[in-house]
Amino acid sequence: MRITDSWAALLMRTGPNREKQNIVWNMAGSFCYAFASMVLTFLVMRIVGKEQGGVFAFGFSTFGQQLFILAYFGIRPFQVTDGAGQFRFGDYFYHRCLTCMIALLAGAGYLLVCGYTPQKAGIIFLLVCYKVIDGFADVFESEFQRAGHLHLTGKSNTFRTILSVGIFLVVLLAGVPLLWACGAAVAAQIAGVILFDIPVLGRLEGVDRKGSRDCLGPLTGAAWLLFLSVFLDFYIFSAAKYAIDAHMDDVASGYFNVIFMPTSVINLAAGFVIRPVLTYLTDDWNQGRYPEFVRMLKRISLLIAALGGLAAVLTWLLGRPVLGIMERILGASYAGSLVRYHGAFLLIVLGGGFYALLNLHYYVLVILRQQLMIFGIYALLAVLAAVLAPALVKQGGIAGAALAYLTLMVVMAVCFAAGAWRGFRRGKGS
Q1: Fewest CB within 10 angstroms: 11, 57, 102, 424, which?
Q2: pLDDT in tens, 50-96
Q3: How many domains does the chain have?
Q4: Domain endpoint, select from 211, 236, 257
Q5: Quick one: three-class SS letters along 220-284?
Q6: What is the per-residue pLDDT across 352-378, written as a single tens digit (0 to 9) for each?
Q7: E strand or H helix at 200, and its extent?
Q8: Does residue 220 lie within any of the structural domains?
Q9: What is the number of other CB atoms lying within 10 angstroms of the CB of residue 89?
């Protein structure tokens, strides 16, 4: 017990400036998580080859992430802002256990009926477990943030990611089959929660670990619409990947995930542009400064559009050399495999720009409190994605998947922009 206390005290140490530590560790955690998500598929394809790399890419960045959203259930915004203590940590904990269990059962159920080989199903299920544990750890990290210890959230995210990804890569590089390497990653994720979350929570003051089943309904009711919106958003974003998995082979899935990597960079860059202005937009709206609200929105929209256009021009000019470099890094067996998808690469980068733009207008609709409109747009686009993506993939393969992604992002951006303008005019007039 004394060793556990000493370890928790070491993790909780901040130095004289806690606010600075909060910022530094939060940035470190976000960077480690995003960087691992971006490059892990690339590394796996280099180590184990095209086919198994494609299986990993789909399981890690698509299906596993979809189930992470189910486990996460959109509860974090409620938990971190619940300063008045409407719900106890125990309530959030029990709710997260329930959603994680549902996510695991949903993943297992899908894999039982989808017709995958036992090896592919096993790899993907282990990756689902990995992502669900991520969702489980979030309930601890959210409580750290609610208690004013954001640095503990960042440390948990940083150290768990380094531990699990590091062990996974070491095991894989040792020549162990991908299935067992994924099992090692899951074990490392569990160890990460035990090492970096549970002991620290035990030392936080004022944390009420008692929970009540009576709170499961209110918590679900508070978050279900946001959860459905986020769940559908990710499905629309990944519809092309699902279509490739259903109608092409695992090699194609791996290739598409590699050329899809720039979208993560674009989203990160857009986040740095969007997040700082959300407070100003919110204040302008709440205080009735409508001209300032419109000017700020137009300015940021134009900036994102300009950055997206610049990214597209650079992709058009430099895309082939970049893809050639990626082929050389992946190995001789990949020669010529990516450069031929330069057109699809350009379409994906353009789609990433529109996705960044629609995210800005999504936040505007949140500020305007237009949750039903948000959900309606996502529901409509989910139906379109379910029809369009398979049709274009069957017709055009990877190029068709890229066109499907761009089309969906353009339509969704137009819908969110129109919805934001309609919500603005309605709210202004009220």
Answers
A1: 102
A2: 899 999 999 998 999 999 999 999 888 778 877 777 888 899 999 99
A3: 2
A4: 211
A5: HHHHHHHHHHHHHHHHHHHHHHHHHHHHCCHHHHHHHHHHCCHHHHHHHHHHHHHHHHHHHHHHH
A6: 999 989 988 988 888 887 888 888 999
A7: helix 198-203
A8: no
A9: 24
